Prior knowledge:
lipid binding, elongated, Hydrophobic Seed Protein, 101 residues, 51% helix, Bifun_inhib/LTP/seed_sf
Amino acid sequence: MKSTTLLVFIAFVVVLVSSPPQIESRVVVESTKPPCTTIDLTGCWPELFDKTKPSAQCCGTLKAQQPCYCDFIKNPTLRKFATSPEAHLALGFCGIPFPTC
C-alpha cells in the first residue's frame, strides 16, 4: 500500500514538474487614429474662407483627420467649425464624404 501511494505521489510530482508554466498573455490594441483634440488646417488658408478649391496639402491634412470627424462634431467647442458650410465645401472639393455620426 505504501509503495502504491509513493508511486502515485511520484507520478503526480512528475506531471506537475513537467507541465509547462502558465503564461499570461495580453493583447494590446494600439489605435491608428490620430488624437482628435484639435482640427489641423495646415495648408487650408485662405481657401477655406475664399470658398475656393483647397490645395493638395490641405486635402491631405483633411483626409488624415477623417477618423476624427465624428469626435469633432461631438465636441461642443469644435462642432461649429466641423459642421460649417466652409467645412462641407472643403470636404466636398477634396472628395471626402461628410460623416454621418
